[in-house]
Amino acid sequence: MNKKELRSKYKLLRNHLTDDAIIDGSLAIANRIVTMNIWDNTYFHLFLTIEKQREIDTEFILQVLAGKDKEIVVSKSDFETFEMSHFLLTDNTKFRTNAYNIPEPINGLEVPADKIDVVFVPLLAFDRAGHRVGYGKGFYDKFLSKCKPDVIKIGLSFFEAEEVISDATDEDVKLDFCITPDRIYSF
Fold first, then answer.
1. Would you say 17 and 47 are in contact if contact means Cβ atoms under 8 Å apart?
2. Phi, psi at residue 78, to the nearest 5°?
3. % of the chain exceeding 70 in pLDDT
4. What is the distance between the alpha carbons of residues 92 and 23, in angstroms, rounded to a whole number?
5. How many CB atoms lie within 10 A of CB 149?
6. Considering Cα of 163, then 12, then 96, then 72, what sign does the dihedral take?
7. For residue 98, what is the DSSP state?
8. Confidence label for 74 from pLDDT (cuts 50, 70 and 90)
9. Quick check: 182 and 157 in contact, CB under 8 A?
């Protein structure tokens, strides 16, 4: 399937998930993250859940990162340039939901993309080669291309891998891992 077909398929599948399935799947994913060999790193970028899109609840991952005393970075999106700016999450960080229902920091200490060690990447679908399908605006491809070459890119998905994304290109930044409730894929 191509990206457009996969976007439609996985948006529909997500919409059919129950609230309990979202919580159970999100918790299972967070428990798998704990087993990964990533904890020597310091700066972890985490997307904040868009509940309306039935995304993985990243609150569990946030608690794991906080419990391991990691520096947590969250983003603010610019829908004119399709760029993101990144801010250190602190006790004083205040949030506002933007027009696309994305919770974003209002302000704070900005963190350059090349300082980030691990990025948890939102997605709709992924394949066995580590290609991903997002919402189609290219925010994460732009962001990840500005990160240091050895940044660890971890996709999070309620669903298992597709065999192949037929229209994936070399410009698409591939994942290093993808975590589902049932397993960890390594690419």
1. no
2. -110, 110
3. 100
4. 27
5. 5
6. negative
7. -
8. very high
9. no
Rounded to the nearest 10 degrees, the angle between the axes of helix 59-67 and helix 19-34 is 30
Distances (CA, A) of 107 to 28, 79, 125, 178, 186: 32, 17, 31, 30, 35
| Residues 123/134, Cβ–Cβ less than 8 Å | yes
Q: Average pLDDT in the 13-19 region?
A: 97
In 3D space, the residue among 72, 16, 24, 69 whose CA is nearest the CA of residue 48 turns out to be 72
Cα 187 from Cα 185, distance rounded (Å): 7
Question: CA-to-CA distance for 10 and 143, rounded, in angstroms?
Answer: 23
In this structure, what are the phi and psi dihedrals at residue 7, rounded to the nearest 5 degrees? Answer: -60, -50
Q: Residue with structure tokens 């005393």?
A: 69
Phi, psi of 83 (to 5 degrees): -110, 160
Please state the rounded mean pLDDT for residues 97-116.
92
CB 173 within 8 A of CB 145: yes
For residue range 78-97, what is the model confidence (pLDDT) as tens digits? Answer: 999 989 999 999 999 999 99
The three-point CA angle 87-154-79 to 5° equals: 45
